[in-house]
Amino acid sequence: MTPIIIRNTYTVVPAEPTWTGRFPLAEWDQVGTITHVPTIYFYDKPPDSFQGNVVDTLKNSLSRALFHFYPLAGRLRWLPQDRLELDCNAAGVTLIEAESEAELIDFNNFLGAAEFEKLVPQVNYKSPIETIPLFLAQVTKFKCGRISLSVKVSHAVVDGQSALHFLSEWGRIARGEPLETVPFLDRKVLWAGEQLPPFASSPQYEGKEFEEPPLLIGETDCVEERKKETVVAMLKLSKSQLQKLRSKVNTSEYADPARGFTRYETVTGHVWRCACKARGHSPEQPTGLVISVDARSRVQPPLPRGYFGNATLDVVAASISGELITNELGFAAGKISKAIKNVTNEYVMTGIEYLKNHEDLKEFQDIHTLGSTEGPFYGNPNLGLVSWLTLPMYGLDFGWGQEVYMGPGTNDLDGNSLLLPDKTEDGSLILATCQQVVHMEAFKKHFYEDI
Fold first, then answer.
1. pLDDT 10s digits, 188-205
2. Could you tell me which residues come within 8 angstroms of residue 226 by beta carbon, excluding any fewer than 6 positions away?
3. Which family does it belong to (predicted)?
4. 296 lies in which domain range?
């Protein structure tokens, strides 16, 4: 691929003065992934009807959007006991302007290319955390006239729902439209403190999410597995293939007649079984599946509309490879469904208390870059599968039309997977999955042949 040339790097601050001050992040903000999560959009050449300058449009509208979403313009700071606070200091976000002589033709092939990461803003996590922007964007203009816009958002500050809320409103502002949903910025609703009921003795919460994931039998650490080369694939599941899987799972002996298994439970169960087969596990191999659950509607009262923060938490479905493979798909889907159903108001609140009472949160935090030998590892024999099925991820228009392609940014960690709806809205789904190179072809084979 032709080199990508960085033309300018801008620091964009809120268009008007905003509230300044510091407040601690909620407990759930501070565990799991606290690095940045990437997403990328590709656009056709702006039509003649678009009279503005692309970079100026993005820069000016971003500044106005930050006035409403000012926490994103701040910085994180470490507190004692590896806690984090958000310093709303209006330090600003980063917008990078780049160019390439390349022609954009096939996005799927491009997605897996090594050069892909050059389209995404890079973050140096060795820098002091108080110097790292919480939001970074890069707009790249290609020779053919097409444009890419990639963003990286701090997962310590917002989850996927909130990140997409911000992007959607940024687009509306760029088009000269008013906000659709004003962000709700008060995070005290998820703080640990006197406002929480005394749930800490609940037998429901055991903190299993924070235990080290299983290792391959015979291994004492995951050092060797971390070193193995990985590859990303985007696998489409048609509406008819999905219906076939759902029919299979909802007529199994494990089905709940009062409530069929969801799309996510069905496909994730299928992915879990396929990964176990592709990896050649022994029947007694323990395996864990990490699931991100949005707690917005699960807490009481539900979080306000537009809650801007991190309201997702990870839960783990556990099994052994042999029972996942020998039992029908409904068995795996049932394990996943049970883990999700456990996330009740009491579960969330006792989890907050559990974290609050921990002396140090470092063991629960993943602030390590790709390729690191530290932090949680959810690769072989484990998986992590995040759902974007219900998120408003498509239709990001800044005035020159909606994207022609959208997908997750660079992610080459073994086992990390993402489930998203196809842009055609025909009922098909896309699985973005990262597997070890030695396992990927077998995984693809099982993914389609086992339907």
1. 777 655 444 444 444 455
2. 371, 372, 373, 377, 379, 414
3. Belongs to the plant acyltransferase family.
4. 220-448
